[in-house]
Amino acid sequence: MQISERLLTLRNKMDAYGLDACIIPSGDPHLSEYPAEHWKVREWLSGFTGSAGTLVVTSEEAGLWTDSRYYLQAAEQIDNTHIQLFRDGEPGVPDIASWLLEVLMPGNKVGVNGAIISINKMREITRQLRSARIQLITTVMPAEEIWDTRPQIPEDTVIIHDQKWNGHTRGEKLEQIRSIMQKESISHYITAALDEIAWTLNLRGNDVAYNPVFHAFLIITQNQTRLFINPHKLTANIAKELTANDVKVYMYDHFYRHLEDLPDDANILIDPSRTNSAIYSSLPPKSVKKESLSIVTRLKAIKTEIEIRHFKATMIIDGVAMVKFMYWLENNIGKEKITELTAARKLKGFRARQTDFSGESFGTISAYGPHGAIVHYNASKESDIELKPEGLYLIDSGGQYPGGTTDITRTIALGNITEQAKIDYTLVLKGHIALATAIFPSGTRGVHLDILARKSLWENYLNYGHGSGHGIGYFLNVHEGPQSIRPQDNGVILEAGMITSNEPGMYRSGEYGIRIENLILCIPVKETEFGQFLTFETLTLCPIDTNPVVEALLTKPEKEWLNHYHQQVFKLLSPLLEEHHKNWLKEKTKPIT
Fold this sequence. Notes:
Helices cover 34% and strands 20% of the residues. The chain is α+β, with helices and mostly antiparallel strands. The chain folds into three domains: 3-145, Creatine Amidinohydrolase, Chain A, domain 1 (3-Layer(aba) Sandwich), CATH 3.40.350; 159-300, 3-Layer(aba) Sandwich (Creatine Amidinohydrolase, Chain A, domain 1); 305-584, Creatine Amidinohydrolase (Alpha-Beta Complex). Helix 13 (305-332) packs across helix 14.
């Protein structure tokens, strides 16, 4: 079916249910950023493939809301579909509830699948619609029902994340969780977040592209852990290990039934931002629901010494792959046909030759020229273009390894570029260095540091729409909370042991995009009578292209940081490189004056 036919079929199904509108968010019952194909209902209905977006359909209209990362991509993909694009966050753009209040009448009904929308989001929409006497129905799923070719839920086998990689055993992690539960008077801790379940049980999976997780739910009490998963996903060895840790396995589909059977006097901890609304609705009405940041989110955000050691080793092997790719690109551009897709495949090939490589951590953003201005550009057969020995090329990529998850962006001058592009590049680099060298007191939140990454751009009346940094998982999701560095305050302080990205950027629509991204580790630096102060240690090891740098725009301390960073890159990567790669790296990391 074409998009128009799918929307018509949906409207007929809505009419049968007595619905005047239907909200179709991205995501799955686990509120995953990257859901498996089975749950990509919004993508199937709209044709928009970005990871963030919500489709809203009424009897006569349809709208797609997405953030600044996907403005250009969404505009292209929903063109000629009669779906209106709402650029979420721009001045004058209504949010979903405000738009529904404009197009609906009192007494109308809006449907949404309660299993794929968070408690917080559900409450927000309900509160806004209730003011106009518009009812929200969460128990019908018309969009899911009309998808006649819907893929099955993945059934891949779960794997063990070997003990040598982990800072704590499965038993120790469960003990940590129960200790916090006891302090907070919690009898039942519920999590549906796939990365939390994988981390807790020291298991990984292949159910979701790029994220080594598996579909499951988890309920932890003081004397038992209940894992809800399709049992055939577990090997006999894993099942035996789980039994030894008092983890009892139940069918994945029986999870909600168990929620309804929890005791009325239960004290239940749930994270309203990471728990779907259907879970909340299934809990006993008389039970006490304590809402706070998930226990596992708190624990896994602080990497252990063992995890940090493995992370640093992983950065070396990932850096070697990046150097080999950049060497290949420089020596072959203009001599053979290289396109965005072939370049991305080449980089994956270099990573695949590295020890313990387990796959990419997200779909590589391989963007040449104007495509670089599309923040989350996804090269396809239709959009793929050839790289030329001129202009800027942006490549944002990452790998999954048992010892860590990587995420790195480099913007490379393939030849001559404009003076404006050089200035823009240097301003982005200044922001990157400012964040990398930040010193801040304990208790500082990401929102307090975000201005450092943007200051040089703001002074030139420039800006970018995405955040400056996100947390990253340990052989888990490439985007991991709770910390972030962005203009929006989420109330989470930056703590020693957290690993976050440092990725300011600048994008000129139709011309080019620039982003420089490393991963940074929060570490203590000094304690004075004014308290404990923290800073960042840069973990990523890969040369930053200095060809586009306007050296006159860099201060002496900025040049010193860049020279020292390149000195470390050469020192740690060169022993693993062949002579020709080593010589190339020496040239790329030579000091700027």
